[in-house]
Amino acid sequence: MLYREAGQFKSTYAEDQQIFPIRQDRIAVAALLLVAFIVVPLLANQYWLSAILTPFLIFALATLGLNILTGYAGQLSLGTAAFMAVGAFMAYNFVLRMPWLGVIPSFILAGVCAAAVGIVFGLPSLRIKGFYLAVATLACQFFVLWAIQRIGWITNYSASGVITAQKIVILGYVFDTPARKYVLTLAIVAVMALLAKNLMRSETGRAFMAVRDMDVAASVIGIPMMKTKLLAFAISSFYCGVAGALFAYTYLGTVEPEAFTLDLSFRILFMVIIGGVGSILGSFLGAAFIVLLPIFLSVLFGAISHASGMEISHAVVSNLELIIFGALIVFFLIVEPHGLARLWQIAKEKLRLWPFPH
Amino acid sequence: MKHSTLALAIVASAGFSAGALAQAKEQFVPHSYYWVGPFAASGSGIAGGAIDYLNMLNERDGGVNGVKFTGEKCETEYNNARGVECYERTKKHPPTGATLVHPLSTGITYSLIEKGTADKIPIVSVGYGRTDAADGRIFPYIFPLITNYWSQNTAKIKFIGMREGGMDKLKGKKIVNLYHDSAYGKETLPVLEAQAKMYGFALTNIAVPNPGNEQQAQWLQIRQIQPDWVILRGWGVMNPTAIKAAQRAGYPRDKILGVWWSGSEEDVIPAGDAAKGYIAAAFNVSGTNYPVIQDIMKHLYAKGKGEMDDKSRIGSAYYNRGVVFSIITSEAVRKAQTRFGKGQSMTGEQVRWGLENLTIDDAYLKKLGATGFMQPLKVSCLDHEGGGAVKFQQWDGKQWKVITDWIASDQKLVRPMIEASAAQYAKEKGITPRDCSKEN
Amino acid sequence: MNVAFFFEVLIGGLLAGVMYSLVALGFVLIYKASGVFNFAQGAMVFLAALTFVSILKMGINFWLALVITLGVMVVLGIGIEKIVLRPLVNQPPITLFMATIGLTFVLEGLSQLVWGSQPHGLELGIPDVPMEWLSQKWNINVSQFELFAAGVAGAMVAGLALFFQYTRIGRALRAVADDHQAALAVGIPLKHIWAIVWAVAGFVALVAGLMWGARNGVQFALTFIALKALPVLILGGFESVPGAIIGGLIIGASEKLAEVYVGPMVGGGIESWFAYVIALMFLLVRPQGLFGEKIIDRV
Amino acid sequence: MSRAQQVGEAVLSVQGVSLAFGGVKALQEVSFDVHEHEIRAIIGPNGAGKSSMLNVLNGVYHPQKGAIRLRANGAWREFRNMDSREAASLGIARTFQNIALFKGMTVLDNVLTGRNLKMRCSFLEQAIWIGRARREELEHRRAVEEIIDFLEIQHIRKTPVGKLPYGLQKRVELARALAAEPRLLLLDEPMAGMNMEEKQDMCRFVLDVNDHYGTTIVLIEHDMGVVMDISDRVVVLDYGRKIADGTPDEVRANQAVIDAYLGVAH
Known about the structure:
The complex is a heterotetramer. By secondary structure, chain C is mainly α. Helices cover 75% and strands 0% of the residues of chain C. Chain C has a single domain, classed as ABC transporter involved in vitamin B12 uptake, BtuC, CATH 1.10.3470. Chain C starts with a helix and ends in a 14-residue tail after the last helix. In chain D, the strands form 2 sheets. Chain D has a 6-stranded mixed beta sheet, sandwiched between helices. Chain D is globular. Classes of the chains: A mainly alpha, B alpha/beta, C mainly alpha, D alpha/beta. At the A-B interface, α2, α3, β4, α12 and α13 of A face α1, α2, β2, α3 and α4 of B.
C-alpha cells in the first residue's frame, strides 16, 4: 500500500518528464542522498569510508561511463581501465603544471583528455562491430599503458612511472580525511549521475539507443551514425577519466600504470552486466555487488575459520574465495541475465500491488 | 544502492569483530599476502615463512617476553585496491592495532605510504617498495629494510667487476639490462645509467612487456648485441621464460645475473636444465640447515602444525624470505619493549621506534640461529635501509649454491641519489624533514 | 642491415606465431560452433598443463598421464557446456562472454586449489637448443622444439579442417554455425554437437598447454597466453580454422620484426600492443577478418 | 474524392533509374513523378522491384543510372546518390516492410526519435536539462503527443515496443515517420500481414495523414483493393520495368497489368 502512484495524476508533460515521476521514489532518493551525505560520514568508520564506500562510488562512476557506451549505445569496449588511467595521469599533470586551475577543473580537463583518447579509439566502431570491436579496444588498453610508461612527461619523469596525487584543496578547504574524501567523491559522482540520467532521457540518449537497437533505421530517420557513436565513446571515456582521477586522488593516493590493468576493465564490465545493461541505477548496484562480494567472502571465511578454529591453510581459503566469486557470477548471469536493475524493477512492480494480489 | 551495502555492512562487521576478541599481552600482526593469481608461488611461500616464524616464537618462547603474536590473514591478490582494503580492515585490530605491515607488493607499498604515516603504523618493505624511502627523515614510517633495488644493483656491478677481475676491467664491456616493463622493472634504470658512466661499460636496456611469457624478440636483440653480461630484472613467469629463451638463443646462462625476485626455486625449476649455471642475487639464502628453520620444523611441523601444505617448500628462497620478514617484525617489537615496557603490547608508533633503533649484529644473528641466513642490520633515523649487502647464488640444477659472501653496496653512489629523490618528494608534498640529531 | 639476422627474426616470429595459433584454435572451435567467445580458454590451457604435470609427478607414465588428462579435459568441457552454457542459450553474446570470464576465475582457483601454486618444469624430451648445423651454416638459431611445435600446430589445423570438412559432426557444425534454428529444424542434435565441440576444445587446450608448458614451464601465467591469441583471432576471423594459423603467422612475424627493428627507437616493449594495432588496421580494411564468414552482429 | 488539400504539381520525379545487384537487374529505366498532396501507389508482383524503388527514393540504395529530382521551395534539385540521412533532412520519411522500430525503447521514445532532426540543443545543454533543453524537450513532447493522439496509441505510450502486437507496431512506426513532419512519406507495405479491421484502421490513418497534414505519400501495397481505394495514381512495376502508370481505373483496365498479375492471386 505504501508504494503507489495511484492518485498521482500528471497534468503537464513537465511533471510527467521528471526523473522520478512517482512521489515515493522522490522521497526515497532524497532520503538516500541525505543519509549518504550526512549520516554516513558521521557514523561510518574509516574502514568503511576509505576501503569500501569511496572505491564503490568511484567504480560506480566508471561503470556508469561504460554503461553509457555499452548499455545505451551498444558498443562493447574492454578499454575502460585505459581511459581511467588517462584521467588519473592527466589530472596529476594539470594539478602539477597549472596549480592555479584548481582541482575540480583539473579533473574535468583530465576527463576531456580521456574523451579525446576515447574518440580516437572509437573510430574503428564506425567499421567494425561486436567482439571484433571489443578486441580492437584492447589495443587501446595496452597502448595507453605503454605510452604512459614511455612518455616521461606524463609521470613527471619519475623513474618508476609512479605518481603521487597532490593534496586536494578546493577554495582553501583541504580534503584529507577519509570522510572528506568520501564526501567529495560522493558529490562528484552524484552530480555526474544526474547529468548522465538527463542525457540518457533526452535526444542524445534516444539517439544512442536507436543506434544500439537498429542502426539502419536510425540513419534513415536522420540520426548521424558517426557523430552518435563517437559522442558515445567521448562521453563514456569522460566519465571513466574522471573516475580514474578520483581513483588516484580520493582513493589510492599513489598510482602506477599497472593499477589500470585489463583485469580492472573486466571488473567494470562485470559491474555493468551484473548491475543491468542500459541502467543508471544498475551501474551502482553492479558496482556495489562486485566491490563487496570478494570482501564479503573473505570476511565470511575469516569468521568461519575463526569460529571453527580449524587450521586450514590460507591458500585453500583464498582459492575457494576465487572459485565462489566466479561461480556466483556465472550463477547470477544464469538466473538474472538482465541484472540487478531488473530485479529491482520486478520488486517495485510487486510492491505496487502489495498487499493485494492484483 | 546503499541498501545492499548496509546489509553487507552488518554481516561484515560481525565477521571481523569475531576475530577481534581483545586480550591483553597480545601483539597483533596482519598477514596481508597473496595466495592466488599469477604470483601465488611467491606470495604463499613468503606468507608461510612469515607466519610460521611468529608461531614458532609463540610455541618456543611464548612470544616476545610473554607477549604472544596473533595474526589475521588477508588476501591481497597482489592488487592495490585489495591490499588497501586489507590494511584498513586490520589496522585497528585489538589490542594495539597493526604492529607493522609487510605489504609484499611495491604497488601496495606506494598506496600505503601516506596512510601508514597518518595512522602511525610502520610500513616495512623488505627488498621491494619505494627505494628513496630509505631516507628516514622524510619517510618516518616507511622502512625499505635490509637492502633496496639500487643497492642491489651496485652490488651486482661489483660482482661483475669481481668476475671480470677488477672494476677497471668493466670499461668497454657490454651489459644488457632485461627488465620487466613496470614500475618495479624501471626502478633501477637511473642507477644503472649512472654506473655505466662511472665504469664506462656499454648499457642497453631492453623492456619485456608484462607478463613476459614471450621473449623471442628481446633475446634475438641480445644475441645481436652479444653482451658480456645480462642483468635479468624479472618477475614471475618472465624469469623461466628468459632462461629458456636464452638457451634457445644460445646465450650462456652463467652470464645471466638475476635480481632477488628472479632468484627463487620457482624461477628456475620451470626452466628445467636450461637454468643450470644461472646466477641470482639474494638478501636471504635458501636451505633448511639453519637453526632458525630447524626450530620451525621442530616446534611446528613436528607437531603437525605449520602453514605450508607442501613441506618440500620449507627452506625455499621465498619461505626463508618470509622468515626474515618476521625476524624483523619480532625483533622490532622486542626492541620497542626495551623502551616502552617489557611484556607489553606495543603500538605501531612504539614499534616504529623499535625499527628505527634496531641493530642485529653477528653475535645476535647467532642467537637467532640465522648466521649467514641474513645479513647484520643497523637501522637509524637517517638510514631506514640498514644493510644493503647481497649474496650471489648459482643454480646447479638441483638447488641454489651460495657463491659469494655478503657483497656490500656502493652507498657513496646510492645514498646521494636516495636523498635527492626523497628531497624531491618532500618538496612536492611540502614535508619538512625530521632533524635526526633530535631523535633519541 | 644484416640479412641472416632479418631472416632469423622472421623465422623466430613465424614460429612464435604458430604457438599463438595453437591457443587461437581453441577459441575458434567454440565460437564456430556455439557463437561463444570463450575467454576461459586460457584457464583451460593452464588447467590441462598443470593437471598433466601433476599426474606425471605422481610417477605415472607419460602416455597414461596424457590419457587421464585428456579424460579430465573432455569431462570438463562437457561439464562446462552442460552447467554454464546450456542454461544461457539464446542470451546475448556478451552475457555468455561474461559467463566465461566468471568461469575463468573458477578454473584458475580450482587448478591451484587442487594442484597448488607451484610452477613446474615440463620435459617432452625434445631438445630446445639451437640446431648445430643451422647455426653453423646460416648463423640462424632454430630449435627442434620450435619445429616440433610448428608441426603439431600444422597437424592440428589440418586435422580440424578435415574434421569439419568430412565428418558428419563437422558438416553439422558448419550448419550450426550458419544458423542455429535451421540446424535444429533439420534435426541436428545441437546439444550433442556442442558437448562434442567443448570436448574437442578441451583436447586443443591440452595440446596448447603441453607446448607452452614445455616452452616456459607450467604455471599460472599460462592463462595469459589467451591475450596473445586474441589479435590472431580478429586477424584470422573468429570462425576460421585456417585463419587461426595464417593469422598466427602474420601476427607472430610482424610483431617480432616490429619489436626488433622499431622497438629500440621508441623504448621497446611495443609487443604488448603492436599485434592488436596490426589486427586493428587490418580490420578497418576487412571488417570480418581474413577468413571471417560474416560480420558478427552488434553485441 | 473530397479532400482538404488539392493535388498540386510535381514535387518529386524519378528519371530513368536503373539499379542492379551484381547480375540481377532490380530496376530498369524507371521514370515517374509524384505530385504534391497526392497518394501515389507502387504496385507489382513479387520481385517487381517495388521496395528497391522505395530504397532508391530515400537513398538507402544508389542507382547506377538515372536520378531523383526533388522540388524544395520552388527550385528543383537533382540527386544521383544522396544518403538516407540527407533524404531525411529533405523531408522524406518512411516505414519499413518488416518493422524497423527500436525494440528496447518505449513507444514515446521511438516516436520522439523521429524528431531528432528538429532538435537544436547540444548534448551539454541536454545534460544540464534546464532552460532551452528542457523547453525543447517539452515542445517536442507536445508535438509528438499530438501525433500519438492522432494515431490513437495514447494507451501504449510508455510500453516498450518489443512488447506490442504487430499491428500496433506498424502504427508506431507510422507515428515515428510522421513525427519528422515529412513532406514526402514512403510507406513500404503498411498493411502487410494485418487482419481486416487493422487494415481498415491503417487505411483511415493513411488517408487522414494525407488529408490532415497534407503529406505527399508514396506507398507500396500488395492488397489491390486497398491500393485502388486510397491512391490517386498508381505505378505498376514488373521485373524492374514500369509497365503502367495512371489512375486506378486506367491501371485496372491496362492489359499489360492484367497479364503481369495473371496467375498471381490477389
